Amino acid sequence: MKKSVTIKDVAAYTGLSVGTVSMALNGSERIAQKTKKYVAMAADELGFRKNPFARSLSTKKSRIIGCIVPDITNQFYGEMVGHLQKELVERDYGLIVGFANEDRNQEARLISQFIDRGVDGIISVPVTDTKHDISQIRTLYEDSFPIVFISAYYKDIPYYTVMADLEDGMYQITASFLKKGYKNMAFVFGDLNLIPSSERLNGVKRAYAAAGIEFDPSNIFQASGVTYLAGYSTVVNYTGHNKPDVIFAINDIMAMGIISALRAKGMRIPEDIKVAGFDDISNAAFLETPLTTVSQSIELMCRETVTLLLNRLEGKNTFSGIKKIQTTVIIRESAY
Amino acid sequence: MKKSVTIKDVAAYTGLSVGTVSMALNGSERIAQKTKKYVAMAADELGFRKNPFARSLSTKKSRIIGCIVPDITNQFYGEMVGHLQKELVERDYGLIVGFANEDRNQEARLISQFIDRGVDGIISVPVTDTKHDISQIRTLYEDSFPIVFISAYYKDIPYYTVMADLEDGMYQITASFLKKGYKNMAFVFGDLNLIPSSERLNGVKRAYAAAGIEFDPSNIFQASGVTYLAGYSTVVNYTGHNKPDVIFAINDIMAMGIISALRAKGMRIPEDIKVAGFDDISNAAFLETPLTTVSQSIELMCRETVTLLLNRLEGKNTFSGIKKIQTTVIIRESAY
DNA sequence: TTGTATGCGTTATCAG
DNA sequence: CTGATAACGCATACAA
Question: What residues of chain B, 166 to 225, have a C-beta less than 8 Å from chain A?
Answer without folding.
Answer: none
